[in-house]
UniProtKB/TrEMBL annotation:
Ranges of biased composition (kind: Basic and acidic residues): 9-24
Region Disordered, residue ranges: 1-75
Biased composition (Pro residues): 53-66
Protein known as: Protein MIZU-KUSSEI 1
Pfam families: DUF617
PANTHER family assigned: OS08G0171800 PROTEIN (PTHR31696:SF4), PROTEIN MIZU-KUSSEI 1 (PTHR31696)
Species: Sphenostylis stenocarpa
Biological processes per GO annotation: hydrotropism
């Protein structure tokens, strides 16, 4: 009887020990090749630590390069040459020539070329609820030679131009006669719009947004509208409003170092000359 009980105990206890050994030391996956492959793949995958930070997002792609070119040096020297010839001719005696009667023409057209200046490209741009800036270029494909930020809002300038004639005067104090600084090189002017003082105009260097506007309008010689946003982060529905622009060719006339004028040139279409805009740079 004792031997049977001991055998039963052995038969009952022995399989339990073997099962524990199989579960702990002899996994069934060892006998199958597919399971081995699965284990190897899981070991090669990187394991993230529970407290690790997520990988940083890649930076946005850089903006396209600016293809605007430097303005030529020849046209920069042209106003100086004109001033030299004017000073020489002023010293000569005035002779009244014989004149033939001329056909009367329309003297009220302010958009005719002045014929003694150079043609440049002028652009007003800015957010509709923000300050408007003036950019002067040798041509639309060149870098700006002058950028003036005005204290006038863009939508206010649009209303003035829709009403008709606009005269902008930028005034500053006179310098000594020995000072050869041109008026367009002044850092600050007092601004008047149609005879009313409207803050100041500040000369500044071109920013990334300025170059972006000039790059987008590279193929535009005349027109007005709204520009696309530079990026998704620059939403046009914010406090500044949409980015508007107005571009036209101007006649740049240099009277002296204390006087320069920009006359906007617009084509005559069936007698409708469009808006009339003139910008005066004067030392008083």
């Amino acid at each position: 009887m004792r031997s049977r009980k001991s055998r039963r105990k052995e038969n009952v206890e022995f399989p339990k020990v073997e099962r524990k050994k199989e579960r702990t030391f002899v996994p069934s996956s060892v006998s199958h090749g597919n399971h081995l492959l699965f284990l190897q793949v899981r070991q090669t995958q990187p394991m993230e630590e529970p407290g690790s930070e997520p990988a940083p997002t890649p930076p946005p792609p850089p903006p396209p390069p600016i293809s605007l070119v430097q303005p030529s040096q020849k046209k920069r020297l042209r106003p100086k040459v004109i001033r030299v010839f004017r000073s020489v001719f002023r010293s000569l005696p005035i002779i009244t020539p014989c004149k033939f009667p001329s056909i009367p023409t329309d003297t009220n057209n302010h958009h005719k070329t002045v014929n003694n200046g150079t043609k440049v490209s002028g652009t007003f741009f800015g957010r509709s609820k923000g300050r408007v800036s003036l950019s002067v270029q040798e041509n639309p494909r060149c870098l700006p030679t002058l950028i003036v930020e005005l204290s006038m809002q863009t939508n206010s300038l649009q209303k003035e131009m829709a009403a008709g004639m606009v005269r902008l005067a930028l005034e500053c104090e006179k310098r000594s006669e020995k000072d050869k600084t041109m008026i367009a090189e002044e850092p600050l002017w007092a601004m008047y719009c149609n005879g009313k003082k409207n803050g100041y105009g500040v000369r500044r260097n071109a920013t990334e947004e300025d170059l972006y506007v000039m790059e987008v309008l590279k193929a535009v010689t005349m027109g007005a509208g709204v520009l696309p946003l530079k990026s998704e982060a620059d939403d046009g529905g914010g406090d500044g409003g949409e980015l508007a622009y107005m571009r036209a060719p101007f006649e740049h006339v240099v009277g002296s170092k204390d006087s320069e004028t920009l006359y906007m040139m617009s084509p005559d279409l069936q007698g409708n000359s469009g808006p009339d805009l003139t910008i005066f740079f004067v030392r008083v």
